[in-house]
Design brief:
Blueprint: E1 9-14, H1 17-27, E2 31-38, E3 41-48, E4 54-59, E5 73-76, H2 80-89, E6 98-99, E7 105-110, E8 116-121, H3 127-130
Parallel strand pairs: 1-4, 5-8
Antiparallel strand pairs: 2-3, 3-4, 6-7, 7-8
Length: 138
């Protein structure tokens, strides 16, 4: 039987690597862990999400995001209100902090490629730790 230890990474295809790196670095404070090189040129990179989790970014001309895509990604933060304030200060639209049905605090934004990013702050009562059901109000 297979036992999954954790999510290793999610992958995003983007049109502009440099602008994407600036967004995730300047707006979200994520650092590049390593680059993917081909013929001496960077064509992708890993962003460190803390621990052993990553966002993998690859250049793919014509990449686009739509609400019908299967993956958005969620980043856990230590202080969601501070994160929202910082993101807003960079001129990026971010929603207000909302307590969700799983007892987490959430806010949403989009990267410059249109990819939806959900920010999460866990609480002591978060269903991710306590179990139980979350009754959706959305």
């Amino acid at each position: 039987m297979i036992k999954v230890k954790q999510l290793a990474h999610v992958c995003i295809f983007v049109n502009d690597l440099e602008e994407t790196q600036h967004f995730y670095g300047d707006v979200l404070g994520m650092e590049v862990q390593f680059n993917f090189l081909r013929d001496g040129a960077i064509f992708g990179f890993y962003l460190n999400c803390g621990g052993r989790s990553y966002v993998e970014i690859f250049q793919k001309n014509g990449a686009r995001f739509s609400e019908t895509d299967q993956i958005n990604h969620c980043l856990a933060v230590e202080d969601i209100d501070a994160a929202i304030a910082h993101i807003a200060s960079t001129g990026v639209d971010v929603t207000a902090n909302k307590r969700s049905c799983d007892d987490t605090y959430q806010a949403c934004l989009r990267d410059l490629n249109g990819v939806k990013i959900e920010l999460f702050e866990y609480t002591a009562k978060s269903a991710q730790f306590t179990g139980g059901d979350g009754v959706a109000d959305w």
